[in-house]
Amino acid sequence: MKHYIDFIAEQLKTLTAIPSPSGYTKNATDYLMKLLQDMGYEPKLSRKGNVFVTRGGDGLLRFLERVRKRSLDFLHMWIR
Fold first, then answer.
1. DSSP string for residues in 19-71
2. Between 20 and 30 A from 37 (CA), which of 31, 60, 68, 79?
3. Distance separating alpha carbons of residues 53 and 40, to the nearest angstrom
């Protein structure tokens, strides 16, 4: 676990050290895109310069299914 915390702290320190005032974030974006690619991810860059990355898996789908089921359970309980 310490390894992950050290990695996160190192990346946060590096990323926040890159000069990137509002509207001029290209250097920080480039750094983040390269880091994610080197980690094996396929980051996407939006027209506005936002970096998006998908971890994969079906975690979101399972979460949404649980929310739907709980909503239906609550609705059925309310109607009774």
1. ---TT--HHHHHHHHHHHHHTT---EE-TTS-EE----SSHHHHHHHHHHHHH
2. 60
3. 11
* Cα separation, 56 vs 51, whole angstroms: 16
- Residue pLDDT, tens place only, 29-55: 999 999 999 998 889 999 888 898 887
**Pair 51, 45: CB distance under 8 Å:** yes
Q: Which of 46, 38, 43 is nearest to 55 (CA)?
A: 43
Q: How far is residue 38's CA from residue 69's CA, in Å, rounded to a whole number?
A: 39
Of 62, 39, 59, 61, nearest to 51 (Cα)? Answer: 39
The CB density around residue 32, as the number of other CB atoms within 10 Å, is 19
pLDDT digits (tens, 9 = 90+) for 51-75: 988 877 666 666 667 666 666 555 5
Instruction: Say how far residue 30 (Cα) sits from the centre of its chain.
Output: 16
